[in-house]
């Protein structure tokens, strides 16, 4: 498949390592690191070959709509959009862009591509036929598709964010320090990373942003970000 990727450079490199051996991957900015990772610089001639607009950004529906609207308008109507909707819903994004019939969402946080599955969702009320373009995109890279209802945070990112948040509350209350909490979770429940280890890999800012959106959308105190998590998000390098 011919795919145009959009996102931050480090995230694009992570995805290119998976996608470029199986698909033709384009980027609009010819950054050297992206080219080395297998990307091809998009030009007017190549734009006509694009089948999938693949958006990896982690942002709200409004920010995504502003980012993608010009690109979507410039692409042929046959191009499908696959967007990381971990902070919004694909229903809302599809409505904002006016492309509810050709968009799907997936749940992604940085550095979590080792999982064997990709959580995906289609807009509310959309026909199941929309799922057909996702299989040839993800199957060649060894990912099983897990279709879930369209909801902010999906499943794994939402659960992981609450684990990191609870660890921040635990440390904030003086129960244990960061190292002890990570060790307890790795040895006690056999997690590959402790909550703080995960937070640093994913980015405390991304965890905090997801919890903020969940708390605002659902009004559930289980998603209220710990004050310590906010400090970690504001001070991470």
Note down, in words, how this protein is organized:
The protein is an alpha/beta fold and about 240 residues long. The protein has two domains: about 150 residues, NAD(P)-binding Rossmann-like Domain (Rossmann fold); about 80 residues, N-(1-d-carboxylethyl)-l-norvaline Dehydrogenase, domain 2 (Orthogonal Bundle). The protein is about 45% helix and about 15% strand. The protein contains eleven helices and eight strands. The protein has an eight-stranded mixed sheet with strand order 3-2-1-4-5-6-7-8, covered by helices on one side. It starts with a strand and ends with a helix.
Describe the secondary-structure layout.
Elements: E1 2-6, H1 9-19, E2 24-27, H2 32-36, E3 40-41, H3 44-47, E4 52-55, H4 61-74, E5 80-84, H5 90-97, E6 103-106, E7 117-121, H6 135-138, E8 144-147, H7 156-172, H8 178-188, H9 195-202, H10 204-218, H11 227-235
Parallel strand pairs: 1-2, 1-4, 2-3, 4-5, 5-6, 7-8
Antiparallel strand pairs: 6-7
Overview features:
single chain; 237 residues; alpha/beta; Rossmann fold; N-(1-d-carboxylethyl)-l-norvaline Dehydrogenase, domain 2; 2 domains; 14% strand; globular
* SSE class: alpha/beta
Shape: globular
CATH first level of the largest domain: Alpha Beta
Compute the separation of the termini in Å: 36 Å
